[in-house]
Amino acid sequence: KSRNGEDKMGIVRSTFIINPDGDILNSWDKVAVGGHVDEVLEAVQAL
Predict the structure, then answer these.
(1) How many CB atoms lie within 10 A of CB 41?
(2) Which of 15, 33, 35, 36 would disulfide-bridge 28, Cβ 3.0–4.6 Å?
(3) DSSP per residue over 1-46, as a string?
(4) SS3 label, residue 45
(5) pLDDT tens, 7-47?
(6) Does the predicted model carry a pTM greater than 0.85?
(7) For the chain, which residues make up each domain, given as ranges?
(8) 29 with 11: CB under 8 angstroms?
């Protein structure tokens, strides 16, 4: 993004599935909000 003539980093959304031991089982970077929850739910149900 550009603000006041300077390039800035906008919000970067990420999602993680973490098990009770603290291990990261799955992750998504730069996610779009729309429809993402369905993808995460499918991944959780596949565990």
Answers:
(1) 10
(2) 15
(3) -EETTEE------EEEEE-TTS-EEEEEES--STTHHHHHHHHHHT
(4) helix
(5) 887 788 999 999 999 999 999 998 888 889 999 999 999 99
(6) no
(7) 2-45
(8) no
